[in-house]
Amino acid sequence: MSLFIVTLRSLRFLAGVCLLGAPAWSQFVVDNSSLPSGSANNSTTENVDFGDVDQDGDWDIGMADGGDNGNDQNRIWINQGGAQAGTLGDFVDRTSVQFPSVSDDSRDIEFVDFDNDSDLDIYISNTAQLSNQGNRWWTNQGSGLGGTIGFYVDETAARWANLGDPGSSIAPSQLIAPGTFIDWSCDCDFGDLDNDGDMDLVHSSYGGTFGGSVPTRIFLNDGNGVFEEFNPSGFQLSGPTINNGNAGLWCDGNQSSGTTNSNGNFCDIATTALDIDLGDVDGDFDLDLLHGARNEAPRFFANRLDASSLAPAVGGGQLGFRDVTGMVYPAGYTEGTFGHYEQEMGDFDGDGDLDIYGLNWRFTGFAFTDITMTNNGSGIFGSVTNLSGSTADDNEGDFFDADNDGDLDLYVANFAGQDKLYLNNGSGSYSLSSLPSLGGTALDADAADTDGDGDYDILVSQDSFQANTFVRNTSNVPDTTPPYIPHCEVPTVITQAMPIPVRAQVYDNAPYYITWYNPTWVQIRVNGCDLPDIPALSSGGQIFRALIPANLDGNVQFRWFSEDEHGNRGHSGWIVYQGQKFNKAPGAPADAPGASVPISGTGTAGPHGRPALDPLAFAFAGAPFYMAARAASSELGGAPWIAVVADGGGNVLGDFRGRLDEDGQALVSLEPLPANLPAQSVAYAQLFVLDGEDWAASRVLRIVSN
Asked: In terms of CATH architecture, what is 484-577?
């Protein structure tokens, strides 16, 4: 694979959008009138997540409850817009109806389509801090599962595979009902780690009594939502903890606490992790791992699925990871042995790569200091910048565009005092701005445009049975910034029936967990003829993935599009390559397998000349086959056309018809060819275009399948 860098992109920072002269604090007001009250909003909420669980076009809320106060029921609040036909942005508690009745000690909730059926399922991170328990899988019952969309069933036992078996690192003694394993998990993230089109799991642990000796683990999705541990070492622990000298499970080398070795001999996969993040930092389109550590130095792992300057590829399309902590961070990036609760990645300087915000990453005395570090484009992070005014005990930060000026601002939820808002000056430096007093002890904050007015609101979760807080953005400044797509993958040119994946980095002035849901697609054309657009899906981080045909014949161009929820559309530059000619022996006839050539007659010319039916692909069983119908002149734009495909006996296999576009051409799509089509099957195709009062005809095209 190679890297294509778009040199011209949409202007990221729009000077015309401003704060209208108002101080920042006046735009955000505490407004809990839209939230449930009473017992539905008086627990300990460790984490919140936004997702459209019922697919009605608005943001619903899932909450992980329990935390330090013990087992509790997780909750779901449904937005009353859309299918509810109520007020957009008002929420009703639907926990007793739509969630399983389960009381557990949860620290994280993640919306993710883990079974590839196009609706949002849920993964819940639980901690055994107070009683033995493990993480859970809840499946959305929509999309053909026989239930109602937005209603969930606990399928924990069915979603794990081979826990504690040979090849698993989990000791059999750690298995526990309902089919899970004991752990101390505060955050887990999903991403397509192995580029096979489904969402895999990175499962972190902070260890019993915050001991930092229980390893993070990786589980790969089988495509149907069943997860098996990725443990190429084959090593199995004897209990919950990993020891120095043990194999690194999913990472190169042996476990060595605090190692700075970056050549693959050693790794440290066990820390007091309270947060982890996935994203492509080195530009190779696979997902790397930013690994937090409350009490230790935060770590970094390079994905070796693809090669980069951080680590070579494993080879053969195999997944692997290397601990590159000692390589990527600058000196002094972290201080102290406490308080490194959280971090975020985002392109806050607008240069097309992921930078890092580290919450409390510098802890000296009794002062906590948040930092930022910018990426040089290759996954190496530059000098540390301290955030002014960040010396209190912050707990969670989130990037979003507070003032809709096109860059990423930062909301920080504070555990011991006032929440903070940092405004981006457009080049990646931050200034502290004022917020209204929220009170409480905040644990988490997430942003979404819950009321559809074009700006981002904030939901703040609170500790110790305090009501969660809704911070409404009243700026009324619309979001006019499109997503930008600065880096796109160019495929290795091959000719085969199966499509091949391509990936791109998609950024926006929104939280990454909002950008994941952007409609994103690939526009593709061959020899100047547009093929059907190809939908793309998020792979996690800033990466999107699409499957493009690998049987195209000719000059291939494609580019990426992404559209945010406010209708702003961005696109990449064109990626261009030459479709590889089918490998025929020198001197082989033109109608060798896979070839499509005009073979008979001169056709019939009309007043504008003779039309043409041009092959755009090689014929493979089970693959789409495309032809371009072209009139002799663009003056025939809008004219009727008919294309007929027949077998050697004259039996019509299909006819296609329509009107030419303004350029005098149209796409003829056989999508797909029969999967059981025998090799070297022959068909014939001819195009007819109404030219004046008579039909002009192309030469006959002979198509031979591979």
From this structure: Sandwich (2.60)
